[in-house]
Amino acid sequence: MQVIIFELNERFYGFTTTFVDEITGPFASTAIPQGVAWAHGLINLRGQIMTLIGMDRLLGRSSSVNTMWYNNTIIINADDNPIALMVGKVLGVMDISDEDIHKAPDDDDGQVLGYISAYNEVITMIALDHILKEKEGVA
Questions:
Q1: Entry pTM
Q2: 48: left (phi over 0), alpha (psi -120 to 50) or beta
Q3: Element housing 42 (H / E)
Q4: CA–CA gap between residue 37 and residue 58 (Å, rounded)
Q5: What is the pLDDT of residues 28-38, one digit of tens each?
Q6: How many whole angstroms separate alpha carbon 13 and alpha carbon 91?
């Protein structure tokens, strides 16, 4: 399987590229009044309006409003529902096998699939589709 690996506030994460359409730079967004905390705003990508999701907030890793770490956007499209994910540096895309993933012990919420070693870092493999469905039925 192919996975995309990125940095998020000095931690490293990855998920499968199944729904990834493209990787692009940061976007200015329009705030969503009374929106959920993890929805940073709305963006317009070539005439298509989509939600810009703060991955740090989605994963419950930060409550900071500081977006200094945000320098890439991963566009995913699940069930014709495009979503933009705010991430830091994208380290790369690589092929791994199921055997490369060291399973997470007792992951009750299903967010973490396990861990891999890449780019001299320990990468937390997340179940992005599960997380999005759990948060708001997005994927």
A1: 0.86
A2: beta
A3: strand 39-45
A4: 8
A5: 999 999 888 88
A6: 10
